[in-house]
Amino acid sequence: xxxxxxxxxxxxxxxxxxxxxxxxxxxxxxxxxxxxxxxxxxxxxxxxxxxxxxxxxxxxxxxxxxxxxxxxxxxxxxxxxxxxxxxxxxxxxxxxxxxxxxxxxxxxxxxxxxxxxxxxxxxxxxxxxxxxxxxxxxxxxxxxxxxxxxxxxxxxxxxxxxxxxxxxxxxxxxxxxxxxxxxxxxxxxxxxxxxxxxxxxxxxxxxxxxxxxxxxxxxxxxxxxxxxxxxxxxxxxxxxxxxxxxxxxxxxxxxxxxxxxxxxxxxxxxxxxxxxxxxxxxxxxxxxxxxxxxxxxxxxxxxxxxxxxxxxxxxxxxxxxxxxxxxxxxxxxxxxxxxxxxxxxxxxxxxxxxxxxxxxxxxxxxxxxxxxxxxxxxxxxxxxxxxxxxxxxxxxxxxxxxxxxxxxxxxxxxxxxxxxxxxxxxxxxxxxxxxxxxxxxxxxxxxxxxxxxxxxxxxxxxxxxxxxxxxxxxxxxxxxxxxxxx
Length: 486
Description:
Shape: elongated
Family: Belongs to the outer membrane factor (OMF) (TC 1.B.17) family.
Subcellular location: Cell outer membrane
CATH topology of the largest domain: Outer membrane efflux proteins (OEP)
Low-confidence stretches: 1-19
CATH architecture of the largest domain: Up-down Bundle
Pfam family, one: OEP
CATH class of the largest domain: Mainly Alpha
CATH superfamily of the largest domain: Outer membrane efflux proteins (OEP)
Keywords: Cell outer membrane, Membrane, Signal, Transmembrane, Transmembrane beta strand, Transport
Number of domains: 2
Number of strands: 11
Strand content: 15-25%
Order of helices and strands: EHHEEEEEHHEHHEHEHHEE
Structural class: alpha+beta
Helix content: 55-70%
Radius of gyration: 39 Å
Mean pLDDT: 86
Protein name: TolC family protein
Largest sheet: 7 strands, antiparallel
């Protein structure tokens, strides 16, 4: 572990309504963001939605048992009846024509058709002559089979599992994006808190040095110009402090809003006391491993395969739907009628039905070819787009891996520079008190001290953002050498 010697710059932003301060680390904020932020909850809801969509898809390929009918179906009216001589007579009717149908069906993904078994019972009551008739199908077996047509079910069985796997990885990516966004807001507030601490320290130091300079002026050890320069530094420090407080308050509000933080029981908002994440794990990332994990885990990689498959599907659809379209409908079973329900099941007769429907385009003026060629052109465009996306994806990973190694070194160097600048400022302050250093040199030491402190915090921010970016791009934790799962 690389240990940074800056120390923990933890600062509570004061406000008249705030009763307490909550100390948080970067990992604490990320965990809260994943569980509590609106973005995290939206990702969880979307995952649940995609799960039930996939369950619906799977259910379509399971046997479906259904009961349908009309019970009762009563009619009382006058109906038009054409007579043998061509005239029309309106005859009264009063009947009940009820029907129940129980069916078990099964889709066949391999052929795109479906089969079913059926049981049906019908009752007809004529209330004008008080008669009742029954008609029924004790058993029937049927088949509906498209011929020479596009098979949507076959393609769905190939694309939908990819789509579901893609959605699962998108959920993980969404939580990693939450972590990256929370990291950015965390460091926005941390930088604001450090600037606030620097401003408060500079104001206190300038007040002290101004008082010391007043005594030195009385003793004739400094000039009036040096005293005025220190007085100006006091005023500038007060302005910087007011600006830093405002910036810190805004940054705190943004982080609190993102975390969806609520007020306590007294209607007061907790303020965040952020810990500087100075401990960095010493691990290395192999470029080839990062690329392999990215193409194995990222939803984009799954999406590449899905898009190519969908392009092949569209070509197949355009080719088959522009030619002969036919469908076979066939049924075999038993049927009967009678005055009682039992008559339906007593020595039923055969029931057969066979039908082939077809449509054959003869003259389309090139429409069929145009549709097919359009689908093929879109397929080529998809292949080219996916190939370009793969190259861009690989370049992103390569850039982030090399950047992470460089930023880890930057953190170490800026930490050392910060320690040196702090020590140098302390020496310069002591020398000024002893009248061994000019006001100008003291001001330079102060600026170097502040700049080094800010550079150290900004280097940490860049490192942690790159760290969570490489996690997002690969969905792999290189610290623990395992895939990221939630």
